[in-house]
Write a structure and sequence with these properties.
By secondary structure, the protein is of the alpha+beta class. It has 4 domains: about 220 residues, MFS general substrate transporter like domains (Growth Hormone, Chain: A, Up-down Bundle), CATH 1.20.1250.20; about 250 residues, Growth Hormone, Chain: A (Up-down Bundle), CATH 1.20.1250.20; about 100 residues, Immunoglobulin-like; about 90 residues, Immunoglobulin-like (Sandwich), CATH 2.60.40.2630. It has 16 helices and 22 strands. One of its GO terms (biological process) is protein transport.
Length: about 700
Amino acid sequence: MGKKICGTNYPLSICFIVVNEFCERFSYYGMKALLTLYFVTYLHWDKDLSTAIYHAFGGLCYFTPILGALIADSWLGKFKTIIYLSIVYVIGHVVKSVGAIPTVGGRDVHIALSMLGLILIAFGTGGIKPCVAAFGGDQFEDEHVRERQKFFSIFYMSINAGSLLSTIITPILRGDVQCFGGDCYALAFGVPAALMVVALVVFIAGSGMYKKNPLQGNILLEVCNCVGFALRNRWYRSKHEPRRSHWLDWAEEKYSKRLIQEIKMVLRVLVLYIPLPMFWALFDQQGSRWTLQATRMNMAFGDAFSIKPDQMQMLNALLILVFVPIFDLIIYPLVGLCRIKITPLRKMATGMIFAALAFGAATLVEISVVKTVVDPAPAKNSLLQVVNLAGGDASVKVLGTDLFPEPIPYFHDSPTYETFPLEGPAKYAYITVTSLGADTECNQRFEEEEAYSLILFPGPAGTQCKLVEDYIMKNEDGNPLVRFLNTLPEDLNITVGTVLFNVSSEYSVSPNQTVSQGVYSDVTCCLKSGECYRLDLGLLDFGAIYTIILKEESGKIVAHKTEDVKANNVHIAWQIPQYALITAGEVMFSITGLEFSYSQAPANMKSVLQAGWLLTVAFGNVIVLIVAEGAGLEQWKEFLLFASLLLGVCIIFSIMTCFYTYVNPEQLEKFYLENSGKEGDNNENMKKKNNDVPLKKTGKGTRL
């Protein structure tokens, strides 16, 4: 008998398990929240590859629980499995954090360390996933059913709490702490690594208090062996022996009738699982496509604060805690009052519809978001804008085109890009500039699919031209990009926040650099001679790309801001409806699905259904991986495709549910009693296994 919490029937050992789970889930979700932006901004992968790798990692995390269950039930037991795989987990986090240090090797080393770290993390988190909750349930005596159920409520609350806090904190560590000259991914990954070390230490600290059940064999392996034996028997003997009522009955000569009957019941539920991966394909894009969408939105909430694009994922964990009691205490009873029969399968189908509606909302948001994006030039074309600093309006004629039919205003603060056709991969364009009554020939070389600014400025012999290559892709972390155009005869050093710009003289342009969004009314600008001035740049807004032109006026340096790429004008709050819809779908689909599965199967088969449920999540991630790499659609079209696919799958699932008959637990028990005298030792073994499997409620959250 282990130690109890004072005055209760709760084992003291569960405190260590709950704290361990909180730290582990903080570690996992905190790291995962950063992954997509890490791939895009640090490893410089494109959005499709980043999405594919993100979901490949997510899929692996939900394939490996089967391996963890096999190791725990057949070899090491739950306790040792959690210890050893947690060590693998910690090593993965450390390797991942080291891979995020810019000074450690080159890009290939960073990629190799990142991938190795993610593989180790996937094996660690997936391997312990089926063990920790069940190990917590093992700590209770069989008669303490209510306390065990309360433990699982606390357990899942700790999961949601860890997820919520981590998705708030780690993006702050990434974006607000600067290290190695940029976002501090090393620290943002290092903190989850430290939390995983704490999780391991806390779990080991309670080792003397744990109740450790002896190995009982792996029911999942036994089920697979029984199914395999039945299929082989049917293949080899069906032509020579009478037909049997069910194909599993071909296993009767080796396996008990009770086991065969239980497998039949489980298979009926597993068949219903076949359409379910499509829901997870949509749900898990919160950390990939939806995060990338957030980077192209306005994330400021007034002057008070702004949110990080990867912090929006915390809405799901927060809304879960809010929605579960609302649905249980208000919505479901109200629907029942309307004399609408609420069944688990109907709830799951409704959850699918809500997820599809969430992607419909995401489609509408995406259509608005892309209006501020400058599309890259198509093949055999370039983009060209004119920045006129020549002292008066200028007419620009490009030979062989009808670009710029109207004169370009002097000092126009919002130039626009025009598509410039090229005859080959590179072309010299013959440009005539008319300004202040004089013509200037300006011949420049262009390359296809690039963007350029043609800068017109006064020179000794009239108007002169300079062609500058532009960067038009919005910053992947949502912050603005800035460059300076120096019209002065001296070099300048300009400090914007913590970012230093070195700008050469005589109409030179500095490279684009990322600065934090905000109002910059007191920027330091120093001449090479040492004389310094204060500049007012105004608001540098999310997603914009600015060229700031520096001129001398009335004896001081003045900044004139032009917007090459418009700022994000769709507010991040417009993502709230899609998060609310997807979370409502999760409450109806995921929580209900787990409860339905457990209610429809014998106690000793719950681990089999848990494995099947986790595999639906894994295959959902595989679907996203295939679409992200293979479809090549515009983002809003991809969102619409996923919404349509889920609606189609929902129809198929609804038809399948019409042929499903709910199992009455009393009938199950009656069947067992009728067959209890016929099964001998097999039944005794099954009874032992039934007593060792905890019945768990999952109504407080579904983050596993």
